[in-house]
Request: fold
Amino acid sequence: MNMGQMLLVLLGLALFSTILMSYYNTFTNQIDWIEKNQIQKQALRIIDFEFQRIESRVISGTRIASIMPEYQNFFTPIDTFYIHNLPYRLYLRAQPSHATGDTLFVPDPPQYMKMHARVVTQRGLGDSVQVGMIDVSVTKIFGDVFSMD
Amino acid sequence: MGALLDSIGAMVVGSLVLITILTSILNFQQLNYNIITVTNLTDISEKIFKVFDQYYMANVETVVGSEPSHFSYHATLEGGRKQLVEIIISDNKTGIGYPLMVKTTDILTNEEKIDAGSYILADYNVFTYYNRDMVEVASPDSVNNVMMELTFLDKGWKGDENDMIYYYMTIWKSFKKTYLK
Reply:
């Protein structure tokens, strides 16, 4: 085998390895996306449940004015859910609002509150998955049904 | 002598490349199978979440039974008829897991219907019950919220029970009408 042939074999091996690695890389990325998607879905279930609980309280006569003080800090988790050994940290914040969700010039006492939610899951060191962010959170508006005439 | 060494070298390199190609093809098939299976399990879990959240548990009125594998309650389902709804996870293992089914009984006519999809779970103790303060409770009268820890499973590439693929989903439901009592 001369030098040229050896070089060709080496080039062939390099090309083969590159193709193989790119395939593995694609699969690894797909698996990562699926895992992230599962975490995001789970996080949305948590947010949905917290909103359901607040709705249940509002319907059963708890005034939003008494609910709002419970949810004022958007930087400290209000609860941490451990699901399949992953911690889902839930952050909630309540703001007085109009029915449209506008939070400016809201009369006192407010008839509506806008709930902001976000969930942060730490998968590993420096690897987190978030649903909702501080500025762009998952929101829902609740009306104080017993104050409306 | 040189030609012989060349031939042996070519055979060794060729064999290594062939083995790597075959191993890679098998690995790709396995990975592809696993991805498809997880995607299917995700679809099933989404369907179950929707049907529980928006249909069976959308209008729970009174909780009747609260066991870890059997949840029963009165609810008004679509059509306005009051039903006894039972969500049952059988403790008899069928195949690879425990089947999940929903039984509805019309309160007026006693007509029974069983909604049993091909939903197989890894565990049958899935329900945990909470009161309005999220304290775990056992008595049906105290139940305001429920948590369902569902682990869906399917056989992996090898097709035996030592190589299973799992999908974990935890869902909660708050029963608004029970808060009014």
